[in-house]
Fold this sequence. Notes:
With 486 residues, this protein is an alpha/beta fold. It has two domains: 4-256 and 453-476, Aldehyde Dehydrogenase, Chain A, domain 1; 261-439, 3-Layer(aba) Sandwich (Aldehyde Dehydrogenase, Chain A, domain 2). The protein contains 15 helices and 22 strands. It has helices at residues 48-67, 70-86, 88-99, 103-126, 159-172, 187-199, 213-221, 235-247, 270-278, 301-313, 333-348, 380-383, 399-406, 422-431, 464-470, and strands at 4-6, 9-11, 15-17, 20-22, 27-32, 35-44, 132-135, 138-146, 150-153, 177-180, 206-208, 228-232, 252-255, 261-264, 293-297, 352-355, 370-373, 390-396, 414-418, 436-439, 458-459, 472-480. Strands 16-17-18-15-14-19-20 form a seven-stranded mixed beta sheet, with helices on both faces. The longest helix is centred in the first third of the chain and has 24 residues, at 103-126. It starts with a strand and ends in a 6-residue tail after the last strand. The model has no long low-confidence stretch (mean pLDDT 96).
Amino acid sequence: xxxxxxxxxxxxxxxxxxxxxxxxxxxxxxxxxxxxxxxxxxxxxxxxxxxxxxxxxxxxxxxxxxxxxxxxxxxxxxxxxxxxxxxxxxxxxxxxxxxxxxxxxxxxxxxxxxxxxxxxxxxxxxxxxxxxxxxxxxxxxxxxxxxxxxxxxxxxxxxxxxxxxxxxxxxxxxxxxxxxxxxxxxxxxxxxxxxxxxxxxxxxxxxxxxxxxxxxxxxxxxxxxxxxxxxxxxxxxxxxxxxxxxxxxxxxxxxxxxxxxxxxxxxxxxxxxxxxxxxxxxxxxxxxxxxxxxxxxxxxxxxxxxxxxxxxxxxxxxxxxxxxxxxxxxxxxxxxxxxxxxxxxxxxxxxxxxxxxxxxxxxxxxxxxxxxxxxxxxxxxxxxxxxxxxxxxxxxxxxxxxxxxxxxxxxxxxxxxxxxxxxxxxxxxxxxxxxxxxxxxxxxxxxxxxxxxxxxxxxxxxxxxxxxxxxxxxxxxxxxxxxxxx
Length: 486
């Protein structure tokens, strides 16, 4: 069997189709952001052939998987969740070396979320009670019917957790799945397929194809066998996938990044707000939900900035395997060039670099936490997602201006508000355009709550019954009253 050793953990670089490992004639290099000279694996590079193999397997497996009860499918998913819990350390180990997310964070918090995703959706699907009512002489029942083969395309940040977040409800709803992970960090998803096999999921139910988006990804989303598509990534790629989905009339959900406002009012606990704002640099700012636009009430801007600088200075840039590290390297040299390009263009156009704005050291992918005071709200660094350790700082005078600035970009994924006033929290929360708004906290998630974006941050909602409804065909069964039973 073709396996590679990642510092003591064995990983397959091949596809997983119909419960078998499948090689491709071509491969692509997967290198570690911790040391770009370190090649982790030559990963199978799929194309139209592999996309077809996976979708045929998913199509063939669909009738049997769909015919199982939600409780029967739930038993498989619970076994898979238990196996994830048993292998948290190995998955975190590999994902740290593959995409450089902090290993301790992955081990203590992120990977176990994958197990919770499978358990939560298995239980939600099993607990579903169809809506029933009488009207016009009939009894009405709303049924969830499995939709069919589903394509899931996930990003390179937190790849394991985000893949489970999408695949768990699709499988629980009775769909078969083809997962395509990002080519910059595919290896932890390959480990997931080892656990799928160990959990005994039937062949073809859960498949993995690897490769480049414009090759195997395009082949998957354009295939007429596909009945659902779920994507997380950039708005540019989302538009391309959306066009493919529209061509085949396939329901499509997308989470497409953010440019979240972090609003700090004068009545806030400034020290708590500053400490939480500095958290936005964690994982090198490669978090779509981060509040990257600091919007601070003018009367406290100077004090907040002082406290924020102190909090940011406590960050440690280093090896993600080291427990003392708080800021990891960026994922790829291309992404480093993108992030530094935003900062250099901001500098050239007159935006003020308050601190940071440079590499930590030559030859590495670490970029120093950076704060920019833009010359205008129209500045590129304000209006576009950087997806790196780069925040902007702007002042506002009163609630009206705060809301106006918060809503002044085309994004609307998340927002953070710091205030000690419940009334203000309610008012601002109702007016800020974002799919999720946190007040005096960040990244607190209830898996049953809807999650998704407004504007170019996305289409549709994930989470809870919202996800299960998306992955289902909803059918209204109307039975004439008085119909005999038997």
